[in-house]
Amino acid sequence: MRKNSYKFFQNKECEYFPCHKVDSGDELLQVNIGKLREDIWERMAQIAFWEKMDKEMYREHRAKAIHNIATVLEKYKYLYHVPVLLQPFSAECIQDGYFQFGSQKIPCQVLAKIDRSQVETGCFYTFHAPEWKVEEDDALLKQYYFEIFRIACLDVIRDWLQGGLTRKHSVLEERYCSPAFGPGFYGMELEAAETLLSLMNADKAGVSYEKGAMHPAMSVAGIYLVSKEDVLPVCRDCEHCIGQKGGCEFCGNYTR
After folding, report:
1. Enclosing domain of residue 53
2. Closest CA to 154 of 109, 100, 207
3. What pTM was computed for the model?
4. Of 14, 46, 81, 140, which residue is the least packed, with the fewest Cβ within 10 Å?
């Protein structure tokens, strides 16, 4: 690597591009789900419990699902590319039990449990699953395959983003990227979706909030934290916590 080389910092072919620290500015990624297909098939098997079937039935369902989905993707190739918006923010926005973005406050109780001094930066994200109209005359099983495929895409892309952010921020020193925070996870209330989208240029990823819901229907939004040490190993029970009194034991007893 050539020190301070302009070409180095502009090398878009580099796995870790941009190779230098990014403090501000949106980043719109085009994630090719074709390169993640094996992870997606595996996640579909978990969602549909194919792994609990006998081997013959497992192979049958997997083959039918892959055939149906691959046929649609090859017909509408634009579906391979999922736009994902990443938008960084300062670690100063992370407070004891909540995020503070200007006048906007988002409760997230797990932040009261972690060592916030380890966190160096945060990053918003939003995207939606591939969209196409399922014909009404399609078999119910085919419609079901498409539904779990889209859910699997959301899960796999979130995991891929976590790995990508880890690599990006570990070019000089090892860093950790948290699992995705978001409405219904890690003590963040479900109602936070509207506030999160209002803080981003979500339309860049084709996501909006209308009439009390995110659009398209299968959209996600949330936050990643990048830190010097893994700040969440003691918080695994919080992963699917919806916050407030209806959440985990910690949130149910949490008071400020």
Report:
1. 24-253
2. 207
3. 0.84
4. 140
